[in-house]
Amino acid sequence: MLRKFLVRKNVDCRVWQHGTLTNALLLATDALFMVPFPRDNLFVGREDIIAEISMKRKQAASRNHIRLALVGLGGVGKSQVAIEYAHRIQQVEPHTLVVWIHGSNPTRFVQGYRDIADNIPLPGREDPKADILQLVYAWLSDRRNGQWLMILDNADDDGFFFTGDEHTAGTGQASEITSHKRPLESFLPQTPNGAIFITSRNKTAAINLVGTHGSIVQVEPMNEEDALALLQTRAPFSESSKADATALVQALERIPLAITHAAAYIKTRAPMTTMSGYLDLFRESEAN
């Protein structure tokens, strides 16, 4: 199970009132922050995308529900933007519950809900017959439990979200399976106290998942300035090497993941491998 960063100050979550935390307790404490990745202190650029996300979220504040999808090529930085945004929300909205769900397959989706149930913690979750998906869905749908943000990461295949086939909805153990006719997408709440952000390489899947509740934000490769800034933070270069650095980020098509991998290679092999040396190796491999 991925490590979780849980932020909870002076909370006794055993205090319940009719299945929900009292409003006074919610207002007096910081909410759970369940994001399995630390903040990247070297994060650069993407301020235009983060500003667009923030604007769309504010515009939809008065509507019933908001869903927003970050769509782009693999390695373009969709998840990194989502991680950075989640940590910023934790800073400015400490009472907002932030949860991260891996949306790559049904097993990981259900495990994400299991983790939410365990960390809140939800009464009845330990019952072998407990319907974890329904328990978490009902809790998130209850406005008395406050604001929340769910990040559904790597939802590239929407097929399993919309089929009504049986799936593991209990505790995640093979011996404790609850069958559902409802598709998994129906367990994504549509209440005004919550927002769902999706990352996906598949634009069609993203459109299907946001439905009528939100919109698509296209994540493109970095501009040259941000790409150079990213390379500089990972593998510092001098002004005399800027031309080589510029040629390198352009050769890597300004894809953040490719730049990060190149920087790691250069840094761990310095001074034997220089910026120009790596560029030669890259061009050689591309030619072959």
UniProtKB/TrEMBL annotation:
PANTHER family: NB-ARC AND TPR DOMAIN PROTEIN, ZU5 DOMAIN-CONTAINING PROTEIN
Name of the protein: NB-ARC domain-containing protein
Species the sequence originates in: Zopfia rhizophila CBS 207.26
